[in-house]
Each structure stands twice: as structure tokens, then as C-alpha cells.
Amino acid sequence: MAQAAKPSKTVTLSDAGSGKKMDLPIIDGTVGPSVIDIRKLYAGLGYFTYDPGYMATGSCESKITYIDGDKGVLLYRGYRIEDLTEKSDFTDVQYLLLYGELPDKKQKEVYRALITNHTMLHEQVRRFYDGFRRDSHPMAILCGVVGAMSAFYHDSLDVNDKEHRRISSIRLIAKIPTIAAWAYKYSLGQPFIYPRNDLRYSENFLHMLFAVPCEEYKISPILSRAMSKIMILHADHEQNASTSTVRLAGSSGANPYACIAAGIASLWGPAHGGANEAVLNMLNEIGSKKNIPEFLKRAKDPNDNFRLMGFGHRVYKNYDPRAAVLRSSCHEVLDELGVKNEPLLELAMELEKIALEDDYFVKRKLFPNVDFYSGIIFKAMNIPMSMFTVLFAVARTTGWIAQWNEMMDDPQQKIGRPRQIYTGYPERPYVAIEKRG
Ligand code: SDX
């Protein structure tokens, strides 16, 4: 990791109560907001900071992804997401996120061969699946099997060994599509389909999801291109909840399989990666355009915890650029698949139109996010709803691994241990049970 960002100026804090003053360094990034370095605040003025949900708190320095929420810009290592989805495939983007540069032809060939040769799972891993109910949610299976991988790879669990980190990173990125596809096959009661070394990452994933031993599965170039684009869009996103979970787990020195399993668990929440499945459930519940006003009323009612799934974002206060790419891809994929007038897409576009004209959403800068349209494309690709968040996890594994490695290489890295403001009882005398109540 290159030199950490350097302080450029200071901000002076003065505490009226004690009369103490303190200069705190301000650190500038390449682009985006500068930060106030508060590491010496407690020693200097005796205060912690307080920021539930980390609305305005930077947890780390990173060179991987940058979001300008006001402008709706997303950059992976400086490249615009629109350029990457149009001109790169997911293997390009994996290499870019992991190593910082787009690969040249030779680098891409070597990397692709490395990933391809780690896509198979140990035959014992198949037995983990038998312990699950057939109707288990595939995210539960993904979380369980990824965590259990640390029971297999004892040869690469020393997180302080760069070579162990390298091989674990490759294993996780290579195997996550196989684990995910087998979770789907298990739910169908169909035989597991093994990865093939003649197929590319997205093609292999589609093949393992949809092929059956009884006949040849023809891989649609449209679907594999759409899958590659969807993976690129979902690959990384700064310090979102699941990435922060991976970093926090990794900061204690936990092994990468356990850290990625923790990230999968966090992504599952409907406020995060689980929103794509929740959007489809919501659209099915709305049913028709005439019901939209009733649901918008509920979304605006502070006493109703219903929210418009696929809308709003902690960082984007403009249209999520990934939603814009997916919105246009929706039409492209549906047309190419010959899916005429998909009612859910029409309903989603009408819902978006009405919401974006509604003062409640405009005032709060609530725009469609990445999850609003992804589910409609997944449905058109015959991906079952229970697998929507799994696809998100397959793609985000690359981002989680890139962020985990960046953290492990960061000389400033320490175990993450937030403080708190305590509002419970002050010390009090013990009460024997006879004297209670
Ligand atoms: C992802 O962080 C990332 O980068 C995540 C992600 C990634 O790639 O990793 O981008 C992926 O998780 C996208 C988000 C998917 N989640 C959803 O679509 C679920 C619906 N969205 C909301 O739950 C919400 O918008 C969040 C969780 C996404 C963001 O919540 P915040 O930043 O904590 O915002 P907030 O809850 O403080 O909301 C601010 C106001 C509130 O109203 P007031 O209290 O000011 O009156 O906006 C309202 C909220 O009630 N609001 C919504 C709303 N989202 C926010 N009202 C109705 N519907 C919504 N969707």
C-alpha cells in the first residue's frame, strides 16, 4: 500500500467547559471529502465522538472504490462503472479490484487460468449440503458452507502469511459460484453440476445453475453477458455494511473464510443486499399500477415500518449509477430474451416515475438503488427469487476480498473496537434475592 494520506491543515476544537483547545489534523483524499483525524481527541480533550450508523465517520483509508453520492458517480480504482460494464468483463474487473490495474492480455490469461483451476470443491464439502433442509434459504447454505471451508484449508489460514492470503483469496473468488450454484441445485433436488475449465466465470456460473446431466445446456451469450455486467455492478461499494463487517471480522485476525461468511450474513439483510428479493416481493404485493398510491402512502407514514424497497441509499443522494445501467439493461435483456411487456418492469417504471415526482422522496433525495431493477432482470433470466441475494454475494466476494487484503496490508491497521456513550446505571450495591422485588 502506498504512503498513507498526509495531514494538510488542522481544525481547532475548543472546549468551553474546560477552556482547553486542541488542533486536530485534516487529511485530504485524492477526491471527495477530507477527514478530521480524531485519534488523539480523547487523550487531548477527554471526549469520544458519537455517530450511530457511521453516517459521517471514515473507518479506514482505501484506494479501491470511490462514490460521489451527490453526483451519482461510482469509480473502481478510478474507472467509471459505466465504462467498465460496457467495455470490460468480470474477470477484468476482478483483476482491477484485487491488483489496482486493468490486466494486459498475458496477465488476464494467467489470472483466468488461476481462478479456473480452483473452481472445484473438495468432495467432502458436498456432504455439508446434506445437513440442510431442501427448503433452506440458499443464503443460509452459502454462509454455512463458506464458513466451513476454514475446516478444510489448514494449509492457508495464517493471515500474516502473504502467500496464504493469496491462495485463500483465489480459492474464495473461484469457488463461490460453485458453492452458490450447488445451493440452488440442492433446493431443486437436482444433481450438482461441476465447473468446467473451458467456460469463463459467468458462463460457468450459469452452466452450474441451469445445466442437467440429461442434456446439453446451451449457454446464451446474452445471459452470460448480462451476468458478467451484473457481477461488475455488484462487485464493490466502499465501506458498506457487509464490507465493514468483513473488515471488522478480519481486524481481529480471523481467517478469510470466516470473514467472508460474516460478510454474507450481513449482506442478507433486507436493508442491504436482501433488498433485491424484497423489491420483487413488494412489486408482486403492489400487483397493479392502481395500488401504487396506497403503497406510497404507507412508505411515507412514519408509523408504518414499510419502506419502498429498492429506494434510498446512505450515500447516493442522486440516481444510483448502477440502477441506471440495470434499468437500460432490463429492456435489452427482456427484448433479447423475447420477454414482451414484462408487467413487473412496467409497474416498477410507473412506481419510479410517481415516486420521483413525490415531494417526500424528492425532499429526502430517495432514488432507485442497485436493487430496484436487478430483481426484474434476474426474474427474466429465470433466476429464482431466493437466489437474488446469492448472486449479489457471488459478485461482492471479489470486493470483500480486495478490501480484506487492503486492510491486512495497511500498516495503520488495528483491531476494530468502537467505543460508546453509556447511559445505564452508575455503580450500585448488590441486592440479595431475598431483598429483590
Ligand atoms: C444496498 O451502503 C451501500 O453501499 C449498500 C449497497 C452496496 O452496494 O453495498 O449500495 C447495496 O444495500 C442498497 C440499499 C438497498 N436497501 C433498500 O433498498 C431498502 C430500502 N432502503 C432503506 O431501507 C434506506 O434507504 C437505506 C437503508 C438504504 C438507507 O437508509 P439510511 O441512510 O439510514 O437513511 P434513513 O433510514 O435515515 O432515511 C432517511 C429518511 C427517513 O425519513 P425521515 O426520518 O427523515 O422522515 O428517508 C426515509 C426514512 O424514513 N427513507 C425511506 C426509504 N429510505 C429512506 N422512506 C421510504 N422508503 C424508503 N426506501
Give a structural overview.
The strands form 2 sheets. A 3-stranded antiparallel β-sheet has the order 1-2-3. The longest helix is centred in the middle third of the chain and has 27 residues, at 162-188. The model has no long low-confidence stretch (mean pLDDT 94). Helix 8 packs across helix 9 (221-234) and helix 9 (221-234) packs across helix 18 (388-409). It has helices at 41-45, 81-87, 90-99, 105-116, 123-130, 138-148, 162-188, 201-210, 221-234, 241-251, 256-267, 275-286, 292-300, 321-336, 343-355, 359-363, 370-380, 388-409; strands at residues 7-14, 21-27, 35-36, 65-68, 73-76, 79-80. The termini are far apart. With 437 residues, the chain is mainly alpha-helical. The structure holds s-citryldethia Coenzyme A. S-citryldethia Coenzyme A is lined by residues 53, 237, 240, 271-273, 275, 299, 307-315, 364, 366, 369-371.
Largest sheet, spatial ordering of strands:
1-2-3
Mean pLDDT: 94
- Percent strand equals 5-15%
Regions with little confidence, pLDDT below 50 for 5+ residues:
none
> How far apart are the first and last residues' alpha carbons, in Å?
59 Å
Instruction: Give the radius of gyration.
Output: 24 Å
By helix and strand content, what is the structural category? mainly alpha
Q: Could you spell the SSE succession in H and E letters?
A: EEEHEEEHHHHHHHHHHHHHHHHH
Write down how many β-strands occur, each being a DSSP E stretch of 2 or more residues.
Answer: 6
Largest sheet: 3 strands, antiparallel
